Amino acid sequence: MGGSHLPRQQPQPFPGHASSHEQSQSSLSSADSSGKSHRRLTRPELNVLLALLLAQLLMMAVTIKADAAWRKEQKDAAREGRAPRAPVDMQIVAAHFQLSTLNLMEGRWWTALLYSFRHNHELHLGLNMLMLLATASGLLAALGPRRFLGLYAAAAVGGGLAELAVWDYLRPLLTGQQPHPSRDTMIDQVNRMHEARKEGRELPINEQ
User: Fold this and answer.
1) What one-character-per-residue DSSP string does 167-179 give?
2) 10 lies in a domain?
3) Which of 191, 144, 128, 149 is nearest to 45 (CA)?
């Protein structure tokens, strides 16, 4: 008498538990459908990111050129026994890409934004570009180009004005010390010469 062969049944998962393959597929689909963090940047978004990086690189090149011209002028002035004169490149950087109380008081309001594209040295530039690459992709995907640029501008202006308020007003008020000097020697030289000329005098060489 031959025994009956019953079909072998596959083990059923516990209720409420999906297989690992199903769970991984579900998590991937939910990640794709829940947000834009896993997608590639669109052409307009990529153009915004590249434009910001390029602007910082170009401003670094202008700053290096202005700094070299200033060093040359200092040597020439010392050799000729006269007070150094700020080169044109240096004056442009100081007047349009440096956030200072002087610039704002003279109506150059755009410096509250444009200062963010200028960096003191190559390491400063590299760290800023690294942070921009690390954060901008996700923000661009989530906000889109226009809102991202609005956030970028608001952060630059707000951060710059806050720092200016702390160093030029709050710190002197609390400590009785003089306003914080510019950490950029080249820009500080231009501002001091500009203030001296407004008072009708030239700075002696030893004050440069």
Assistant:
1) IIIIHHHHH-PPP
2) no
3) 144
Let me know the angle formed at the C-alpha of 29 by 28 and 30, rounded to the nearest 5 degrees.
90
Total length of the chain? 208
Q: Which amino acid is at 29?
A: S
Residue 135 region by backbone torsions, left for phi larger than 0, else alpha for psi between -120 and 50, else beta: alpha
Residue 15 located in a structural domain = no
Task: Write out the residue range of the structural domain in which residue 154 sits.
Answer: 48-203
The model's pLDDT over 37-75, given as tens digits with 9 standing for 90+, comes to 457 889 999 999 999 999 999 999 988 888 888 889 889
- CB distance 41 to 141 below 8 Å: yes
CA-to-CA distance for 182 and 184, rounded, in angstroms?
5
Average pLDDT over residues 188-200: 56
Residues sharing a CB contact under 8 Å with residue 109, sequence separation 6 or more, in sequence order:
none
DSSP 144: -
d(CA 147, CA 34): 20
Pair 99, 164: CB distance under 8 Å: yes
